[in-house]
Write the structure tokens for this entry.
Amino acid sequence: MMNTMRLLLAVLLTASCASAPRVTPAPPEAPPGAPPGEYVPGSGPPPVAREFRGVWVATVSNIDWPSVKGLPVDSQKAELLAILDRAAALKLNAVIFQVRTTGDALYASELEPWSEYLTGVMGRAPNPFYDPLEFAVQAAHERGLELHAWLNPYRARHPSSQSPLASNHLAVTRPDIVRPYGTHLWMDPGERAVQDHTTAVVLDVVRRYDIDAIHFDDYFYPYRERDAVGAEIPFPDDPSWKRYVDGGGKLSRSDWRRNNVDELVRRLHGEIRAVKPWVKFGVSPIGIWRPGYPAEGCCFDAYESIYADSRKWLAEGWLDYFVPQLYRQMSDPLMNYGVMLGWWSQQNVKQRQVYAGMIPSRVTGRPGGWRADEIVGQIYVARGHPGASGHVHFSAKALMQSADSLAEKLMRTVYRAPALVPVSDWVQGSAPARPRVTLAPGPNANSATLSVSASDGAPVRVWVVRALYGDRWIVEIIPGTRDRIELTGPAPLREVTVSAVDRNGKEGPLAVVRRP
């Protein structure tokens, strides 16, 4: 029997690389607990972990990008590419890029003006011209990263804004539906015209850009502001509230406000799906739904203060993914990270994706700051939690500055191996077909050139390449934009398997080739 197996192996290893590749199903997913970087063979090609690994790139107030208003275009591009390069080096798989901060646009829009955070003056286009969102989408996909377009639905002006409003800004064209509120301007969520405008802006982005998701943060109705003597300022939505009451509305004012937000979330989920079924919709609410939920939760009441019934959105399945902002340490005696994550997981009755929102920007390397080990530990906690399937970092600057060697520790521990994004099972569609692959010998036994293409011409987000060098498998996730891949490893290359992964994270069957 042993001699027969050796003979069979010899025949396979000498087979022509031009022969048709074998087909096998994709291996089962690896558990997300601790995905290894290399695998000892035992039962064939290894599985790949499923874990959403994202980072927010905030543009409001130039938090992450660009570093200053009016930065030259070449410098803007270089800064953005540096962020994407860092994300790829860390083996993240998604970037959440803020493209609408205050009724403005960090992309070419006919509906809203260019953002002052980009060029320094609202309404002024980049010169020389380029479209930052188009640039970011292409660059992210070339690095195997999803690109989620992050929009703020209602904020119309931020205290950090300095330039005059552009003539096509909503506060100028429709001042009747925009309210001054403390240091902000705010689109009134109770106005149907505001909901229609925000929906039109979102769908315009979905139609024109090859994005992977639309993302909202925690700002719906504004956080309460106070006047000079400390008294709370009521949100000035009397006109829309009066119209609702005069029309026979029966809800209380608080319930009416929550319903206004609910309707936008429900509407967008359906309309995005109708335009492009593969584009996901995600929201990142504040980490506590209401004081007492969970029992340890206290202090801020998002349900009553900003009228965000985020538990309802998750329970109704109006989202594809949900990222509660769990900005607490694991040891926090009041509201700790693990308890909040567990509570949100229990609310996920429709089994959407729940990702932990984390805040590595508090890893400062200074007294009072968090240690990098806190973030590493939080990732391990999320991996061990059956209700969580990933995490998102706020924000990119923290991963670029790498205080307390955060980036290095992440690469050395939790990010040693790549991961695929979780599958969105509720989105219809079949897995990709087996790809066409050929393998050409390289200059030595440890190397080869892999050529790969989609056999049915369907879009491929990434390729999963599993290469057997000697007696060890090494797994790489390669951008779907590439059709030639240079392979080299620590021992003679024996076998390569390739599978395609589509926009919804579905992995197709493996094509198997052996080095002649």
In short: Residues 253-275 form the longest helix (23 residues).
